[in-house]
Amino acid sequence: MAEASGLSPALSSAEKNPLHLQCGECPIRHRAVCARCDNEELTALENLKYYRRFEAGQPVVWSGDRMDFVASVVTGIATLTQTMEDGRRQMVGLLLPSDFVGRPGRMIAGYDVTAATDLVMCCFRRKPFEEMMATTPHVAQRLLEMTLDELDAAREWMLLLGRKTAREKIASLLAIIARRDASLNLRRASGKLMVDLPLTREEMADYLGLTLETVSRQISALKRDGVILLEGKRQILVPDFDRLLEEAGDDCDGGIPG
Amino acid sequence: MAEASGLSPALSSAEKNPLHLQCGECPIRHRAVCARCDNEELTALENLKYYRRFEAGQPVVWSGDRMDFVASVVTGIATLTQTMEDGRRQMVGLLLPSDFVGRPGRMIAGYDVTAATDLVMCCFRRKPFEEMMATTPHVAQRLLEMTLDELDAAREWMLLLGRKTAREKIASLLAIIARRDASLNLRRASGKLMVDLPLTREEMADYLGLTLETVSRQISALKRDGVILLEGKRQILVPDFDRLLEEAGDDCDGGIPG
DNA sequence: TTCCACCGTTGATCTGCGTCAAGGAAGCTT
DNA sequence: AAGCTTCCTTGACGCAGATCAACGGTGGAA
């Protein structure tokens, strides 16, 4: 793993103690690997690393080589991207806090992992992780469930990539971000739903299989049509979430929790 | 689960005993769930079902409702597809022998499961499966590995859907089928690689996020350019596999095993 | 045999999105 | 302040692939 060398992280006090952001003592949220906070094997393996959002041409944190570890996002956002020789790029994973990357059992990464924001990850070396999996069955089960969730998300994503129009893709992404955002900390402004976009237009384009120009145009169009309101460039207001879902072409039932 | 009722399967002798197709005694291949053929819990739960390839408008074997089971393909091919209200369809999974569907822990299917060919599946009810998972750690681990493999495949697929041209998509699909085909039983005719397409043009289109017309045109183009030869409509000869990979835009190293 | 359903091919035309290009706004460093 | 970089927006144009349409081949049923 590439060392996050020379970083002198200027973080808020909450971010300084990511251990306590999640479930009090355990570096990994309940939703993540650890199902019991008092799991000593897990906390003993704890190994936090900082990564800065990359400036200029976003180089990767890890490229497509050895990946003999498992890592869980504590704070920040990481992206998984695949790149073709000629530079075409497709995002294939978006890791929010409590999501994980890595392959117990296999060793080669098939994608780049990049810090989309400043990022704190909790890393486990492969060997001890595997031993722990073998001796602690509930960890393997939890991991299986999370992986199946990821797979379901990937399949939704495939429908988006293969069959949705640009406008539907944008609306879908906004709905996804809004929903995940809301599941953590719901924020409403004057009865409307407030969402901020953690991604640049280019990153959205890579997520959606579009160009950044098309992303920009469609966001403008949604704004023009009153589906969303822009508050600056990276923050949107959603006056009517159901309308947004409609634009997304989602049969996916379910609004915002809370 | 929908019963495959009223089927009087007219199958070859090999297909009549799918138990013995895979690893002699166990209905599930080594690659699949069962890591030890003598696992009595597994074989005791064994529950084989036949499904016919659906004629006319392909209805689904299971639609997006309860899915309180886990099932593994023994012989044949199953597809997972998602459909939007207006009928747009995207394939999100292609299950060959030893692949599985199902959600230990969760209950709702997010996609249709369809028999693309006549199909034999080995089904486990959720409850006993979960109990077994809890008591037999190597099953959970094996399942996790398989799920991670699926996830990797899904991510390759996302690159294909989001960024590849129609020609590259077709070449990629042919390469994928050839590779999976070869990993089971390699067949070569006069030094060339012989692959038969288990999917209709429409199913390929759903796989690739294209229309069936475009699929047909691009296959014709690849044939015209000598990348492939057609032997009938559902069987192709690949004179040069590396050439095919090149057309696919794959940096994905690795030719045909064997 | 005829009829019909399904599957595949090919042509003509249309259009959504990519491509190329120019420029504006915000945040830096010097 | 000026000047840089990064991020975003908007316009003009072209093309890959969708859409609409016609037709051929094959296999099963009557």
UniProtKB/TrEMBL annotation, chains A, B:
<dbReference type="InterPro" id="IPR050397">
    <property type="entry name" value="Env_Response_Regulators"/>
</dbReference>
<dbReference type="InterPro" id="IPR018335">
    <property type="entry name" value="Tscrpt_reg_HTH_Crp-type_CS"/>
</dbReference>
<dbReference type="Pfam" id="PF00027">
    <property type="entry name" value="cNMP_binding"/>
</dbReference>
<keyword id="KW-0238">DNA-binding</keyword>
<dbReference type="InterPro" id="IPR018490">
    <property type="entry name" value="cNMP-bd_dom_sf"/>
</dbReference>
<dbReference type="InterPro" id="IPR014710">
    <property type="entry name" value="RmlC-like_jellyroll"/>
</dbReference>
<dbReference type="InterPro" id="IPR000595">
    <property type="entry name" value="cNMP-bd_dom"/>
</dbReference>
<keyword id="KW-0805">Transcription regulation</keyword>
<dbReference type="Pfam" id="PF13545">
    <property type="entry name" value="HTH_Crp_2"/>
</dbReference>
<feature type="domain" description="Cyclic nucleotide-binding">
    <location>
        <begin position="33"/>
        <end position="150"/>
    </location>
</feature>
<dbReference type="InterPro" id="IPR012318">
    <property type="entry name" value="HTH_CRP"/>
</dbReference>
<protein>
    <submittedName>
        <fullName>Crp/Fnr family transcriptional regulator</fullName>
    </submittedName>
</protein>
<feature type="domain" description="HTH crp-type">
    <location>
        <begin position="164"/>
        <end position="242"/>
    </location>
</feature>
<dbReference type="InterPro" id="IPR036390">
    <property type="entry name" value="WH_DNA-bd_sf"/>
</dbReference>
<dbReference type="InterPro" id="IPR036388">
    <property type="entry name" value="WH-like_DNA-bd_sf"/>
</dbReference>
<keyword id="KW-0804">Transcription</keyword>
